[in-house]
Amino acid sequence: MDIDQIAITILKLRRELTACLSLHCNSNLIKIHFILLNPGMKSAEQDWGPSDQAAQQSYFLKEEFHYLDVTQIRKFTIFDMFHCPLACLRNNLCLSLNVASSRGTEGKFWCELLSSDKNRNAENYHKNTSSHHFSILRSPCSSSPCQNGGTCIPNFNSNTFDCLCKESFLGELCEKAVKSCKEVYEVNKSNVSKLVSLHLGSQPTTVLCHMGDFGCGDGGWTPVMKINGNKSTFHYDSGYWSNKIEYNTAGGETGFDSQETKLPTYWDTSFSKICLGMKIGGQIRFTVINMKASSFYSLIADEKYRNTSLGRDTWKKLIGSEASLQRYCNTEGFNVICGGSDFSKARIGTATNNQDNCLSCDSRIGFGTGGQYDPYNTCGNEATREPDNGDKHIKAMGYILVY
């Protein structure tokens, strides 16, 4: 704000305040909002311009033709009533003020700044035709209670406040850093997907929070990984599954596209549901695993097999009508290895066999896959040796989110 704008603001506030001080407004609650200028700047009125660098707001309760007879901090005369409440605001000891109800012989008003108020000195408070009394109501926001850049909204009637938090913070005082999209959804109940900064470590990570039901049910879904089946980045044997190293975090901001990513949410976000999606030829299909865990890392990094119970038909739905699997074994879950390391395996998925055992699986559907016959198909469907819908080599773009 430049000096001309400041001058206009001051004059506007002066007119509004003077009208109320002179009994020409209906309300007895007067709001004073004034600008504290940057050091070195000069106000349109040199004698009132404060030296601090901020903005302040206070309310005065106007009581016409009353006087509080207590020790004064200061008494002075002014041509403009505007100066009296501003002088009180600038003095930390000032709790109320008396001001003349009319101008004196020199055309001035007298003003008294007081270090007490009528509640503390009720016996000294009385009617007086020559003055008005103003009690300053300190804003409940004056102590800046809202943390992390939150905006304090005062309620002067109840002397309380509410904090309007920035997107990445929650809590009564905006004291809680958001760590998942679920937290944002449960506060706002909005189905509009949006970018949110999650506090998962020393630096915030911005992700696209998928809100509402896009195929996995209502909620705020936090992205964890995106895997391109044509690339070896997240092959079953990749170290990314067992470490806490992120990969292309910018990919977490772009939705269901072809950018691969591994986000800090892999090791630092707890959940009760997992949303799995595969995109093939522009068509995305989803399924949900109901499972509680402290993180995705806790389910996979230790290399231990953990079973799920979706069933082969549910895994095939991720692929669509072209899906194919062998008929036997049907092992599924996390860290699935069916036979030796050369056979079908998946970090999340299912592996099947043409024999009634799990010793030499040749088919799979999953994420972070490997093994014969195409070890470079890392997300999608591989099926050979008598599968139920013919041999398949389908590579997909995979999406993993949690709630």
UniProtKB/TrEMBL annotation:
InterPro entries: EGF. Residues 137-175 form the EGF-like domain. CDD domains: EGF_CA (cd00054). It holds the Pfam family EGF. Disulfide bonds join 146-163, 165-174. PROSITE patterns: EGF_1, EGF_3. It comes from the Eukaryota. Keywords: Disulfide bond, EGF-like domain, Glycoprotein, Repeat, Signal. SUPFAM superfamilies: EGF/Laminin. The keyword Hydrolase does not apply. This is EGF-like domain-containing protein. It comes from Pocillopora damicornis (Cauliflower coral).
